[in-house]
Amino acid sequence: MVTDQGLRGIFPPSPETVESAIVNNRDVLARMADQDLQRFWEDQAKEFVWFEPWTKVLDESNPPFYKWFVGGVTNIVYNCLDRHVQSWRRNKLALIWESESGEQRTFSYHALSREVCMFANVLRSMGVRKGDRVTIYMGRIPELPIAMLACAKIGAVHSVVYGGFSVEALHGRIEDSRSNVVITCDGSFMNGKIVELKAIVDEALKRCATVEHVIVVKRTGQPVVMENGRDYWYTELMNLPIARTASGASRCETEEMDAEDPLFMLYTSGTTGKPKAILHTHGGYMVGVATTLKWVFDIKEEDRYWCTADPGWITGHSYIVYGPLLLGTTSFMYEGAPTYPYPNRWWSLIEKYGINIFYTAPTAIRGLMRFGEAWPNRHDLSSLRLLGSVGEPINPEAWRWYYEVIGKSRCPIMDTWWQTETGMFMITPMPETPLKPGSASKPFPGIEAQVVDENGKAVAAGEEGYLVLKRPWPAMLRTIYNDPDRYVNQYWARFPGMYFTGDSARRDEDGYFWIIGRVDDVIKVSGYRLGTAEIESALVSHPTVAEAAAIGLPHDIKGNAIYAYVILRSGVEPYEGLPDELRAHVGHEMGPIARPEKITIVNQLPKTRSGKIMRRVLKARAQDLPEGDLTTLEE
Ligand code: PRX
Distance, CA 532 to ligand 1 centroid (Å)? Predict the structure, then answer.
């Protein structure tokens, strides 16, 4: 049994874990990378097919616009699908999918590649070309990764918008990316209910004009409006000759891409109301994501791997879609809610499919913990070998439950710290690393992380400070789409020469990193990243609201919950039901995850003399904590 004493201590790996792990010389690898970073990553890049080799591993001539594998030509999809189809892996399962209602679909590498080829042909026939942006807004069904891969195969840049977002969030992302094509579903299932995705797309498109075509996968079957000449059913397109080559084959040439050509953009929240599109590329991203997945989750040929994230977030991009396919892995994907119809759904799926590696988020563990041990204990979870955690710090109670009840004190927990921007794991254990619950342990080989003070000077062990990264890495973001200045200002200006993560952390005497949380205006709700400014701008778009402030307050299951304060427009009298109406409005504009827990109508907000809302004062007041330095406050 784990005691509290033990939780504060160190959990060494079992000798069998170390012996069988792909990497059992982490320190040696770290030293090699320190000595020659370029050679270290070059060795990993050689695992992949390149149509042309690179001439330079890392171009540092124009920081922070780093380039990796300069001159190299490849396509990540060639390495995810084409090369496996040409090998014995052709008939290996790439994807096993189960719907919320229990329906099952499987795809071998051959079958997945065939579907991707046909859909890529469809996109090409609709005029989608290399460099064009395509917005994907779907539920968690196989056609979501198929759409992503089809775009990448022909060199188009996908922008996946999480299916839990709603009208304004979707509209802003379609418009900013200037997508011509949107791929969606009629609806998606979540908790037995239908989310009407196509209706949300229709409403979003009324607010923007760039989109020429909408491709709709039929999933739920409820009636939807199909606009003539704009909207097409996926299945109908796939049955047309356009889905095949001139000779009728279900094949499609993979576009040759420069290593630095964009692969996808993914919007994430930052300090302003306008979400930023993080841009990732074909070459470096491929090398970084595959290497980290292989070494940290110790993926072996025969493994079955399940990452419970949604493909609409970076975890899904890197570690549901691209990483596992690059390694030729069999992945499992589940459509719906973990508690549907009962709180044992995930545990029953682990048993049913014999999952070996299971990667989820602390918020999900906390959510399932409250239903008690009896639910997982009804299932044989002995197939599990490794567990993973991501998205926020994992608290000791959740760690203990995950380790003991799910992993039966046998499976190490890989607490992976990383970001949309980093593309790949940055601070993480490997199976051989002794674990300290709540710590993401040490930087991945080749990654230099440091905790610094206001002036960018390293702080002493045990002291809290800002988490920065000091050397480029291959899967790093290249820029913010269409906004290189914002890229420089957001990440590289605060501490010159260092990438600022936006997190605070401390490093202990053993060199282990303990992430504390965000220090900017980002709130992590159930592991989802939301910007206070986005929530505020959704509130202000309501006709009764003049000003709004959103803050995150601690929540037992979600990690943080959103609380908002609004000032009404002059002449508007508060009426009963208005706070609920405003909550619903945020849900409609942004999506259910952004809906505030509570909205309070106020007459004034704490502001600095220059007019900036002091959210930290609101936070302190809400929690009855000391308000701190108030010299700049003008109320
Ligand atoms: O605050 C950190 C937290 O999530 C942020 C990144 O969010 P996002 O871009 O949405 O990516 C999430 C999935 C990679 C980080 O700045 N975070 C992520 N992983 C951890 C974490 N905090 C503590 N421990 C982690 N393992």
Answer: 17
Side chain identity, residue 467:
L
Are 88 and 325 contacting, i.e. CB atoms less than 8 angstroms apart?
Answer: no
Please list, in sequence order, all residues whose beta carbon lies within 8 angstroms of the beta carbon of residue 340, skipping any fewer than 6 positions away.
Answer: 100, 191, 192
**pLDDT tens digit string along 294-333?**
999 999 999 999 999 999 999 999 999 999 999 999 999 9
Pocket test for ligand 1, best of 524, 530, 593 (most atoms within 8 A of CB): 524
Distance between CA 602 and CA 611 in Å, rounded?
17
> Counting atoms of ligand 1 from 1, which one is nearest the CA of 420?
9
Distance 394 CA to ligand 1 centre (A): 11
What are the residue ranges of helices labelled H in 131-208?
143-153, 167-177, 197-206
Report helix, strand or coil for 440.
Answer: coil
d(CA 529, ligand 1 centre) in Å: 8
Question: Where does ligand 1 bind, in terms of residues with CB under 6 Å?
Answer: 268, 314-315, 390-393, 415-420, 440, 501-503, 515, 518, 524, 529
- Reported for 539-544, long-range contacts at CB under 8 A and 24+ positions apart, including other chains, are 539/564, 539/566, 539/582, 539/585, 539/586, 539/599, 541/168, 541/585, 541/589, 542/581, 542/582, 542/585, 543/569, 544/568, 544/569, 544/572, 544/578, 544/582
Residue 417 Cα to ligand 1 middle (Å): 6
527 CA distance to ligand 1 middle (Å): 7
Q: How far is the CA of 515 from the centre of ligand 1 (A)?
A: 9
Q: If you take atom 4 of ligand 1, which residue's CA is the nearest one?
A: 391
Q: Chain-centre distance of CA 305, in angstroms?
A: 17
Are 172 and 158 in contact by the 8 Å Cβ rule? The answer is: no
Q: Could you give the dihedral angle defined by the CA atoms of residues 385, 389, 393 and 395, in that order, rounded to the nearest 10 degrees?
A: -50
Over residues 448-467, the pLDDT tens digits come to 999 999 999 999 999 999 99
- Give the C-alpha distances (Å, rounded to integers) separating 378 from 161, 176, 404, 405: 36, 48, 15, 11
